[in-house]
Amino acid sequence: MESARELALRLAEIAFEKKAFQLRVYEVRDSVGYTDCMLICSGRSDRQVKAISDHIALTTKKQDGIRVHGVEGADAGQWVLMDYADVIVHIFNAPVREYYDLDSMFQTATRVPVDEPPWEEEMRESIFEQGLLSGP
């Protein structure tokens, strides 16, 4: 990969393969001293969160020759943090993401455009209907 932004977009593409939603990529190099980009996405359940993180780790290793430096929280599946040095990936179970609201921490960071997948609206509505989020 040529840049942190390209890596973040590649990781986003891989996350979409497992139906991750509410995906945001932020360029944070001017805000934090430990990474260049932050990728934040949601899954509908602990099982899906784990599947997304496993898929990202395996795909980047096999297809891109990139190994994750560290993974935290994969056993619980509520919030998985994946460290790719220049990119930090946060995969949340949707209600946990709303609770911690990391997105608000990076509201002044540059948001990298990511195409919304066709299932995005359906996922948001489903989570809202289950009473897991406060609004669609």
Tell me what the structure shows:
- With 136 residues, the protein is an alpha+beta fold.
- The chain has one domain: Beta Polymerase, domain 2 (2-Layer Sandwich), CATH 3.30.460.
- It is 39% helix and 24% strand.
- It has five helices and six strands.
- It has helices at 4-16, 46-64, 94-100, 102-105, 120-129; strands at residues 21-27, 37-43, 70-72, 79-83, 87-93, 110-112.
- Strands 3-4-5-2-1-6 form a six-stranded mixed β-sheet.
- Strand 4 and strand 5 (87-93) form a beta hairpin.
- The longest helix has 19 residues, at 46-64.
- The chain is globular.
- The chain starts with a helix and ends in a 7-residue tail after the last helix.
- The model has no long low-confidence stretch (mean pLDDT 89).
Summed up, what is this model?
The protein contains 5 helices and 6 strands. The chain has 136 residues and is an alpha+beta fold.
Helices and strands, with pairings:
Layout: H1 4-16, E1 21-27, E2 37-43, H2 46-64, E3 70-72, E4 79-83, E5 87-93, H3 94-100, H4 102-105, E6 110-112, H5 120-129
Parallel strand pairs: 2-5
Antiparallel strand pairs: 1-2, 1-6, 3-4, 4-5
Helix pairs in contact: 1-2
Task: List the secondary-structure elements in sequence, H or E.
Answer: HEEHEEEHHEH
| Spatial order of strands in the largest sheet | 3-4-5-2-1-6
- Low-confidence parts, pLDDT < 50 over ≥5 residues? none
* Helix/sheet category: alpha+beta
Distance between the termini: 35 Å
CATH architecture identity: 2-Layer Sandwich
Tally of separate helices? 5
* Alpha carbon gyration radius: 14 Å
Tell me the overall shape. Answer: globular
In helices, the fraction of residues equals 25-40%
The largest pleated sheet is described as: 6 strands, mixed
CATH class: Alpha Beta
Number of strands: 6
The structural domain count equals 1
Average pLDDT number:
89
CATH superfamily placement: Beta Polymerase, domain 2
Q: Say what the CATH topology is.
A: Beta Polymerase, domain 2
Q: Kindly estimate the percentage of residues that lie in beta strands according to DSSP.
A: 15-25%
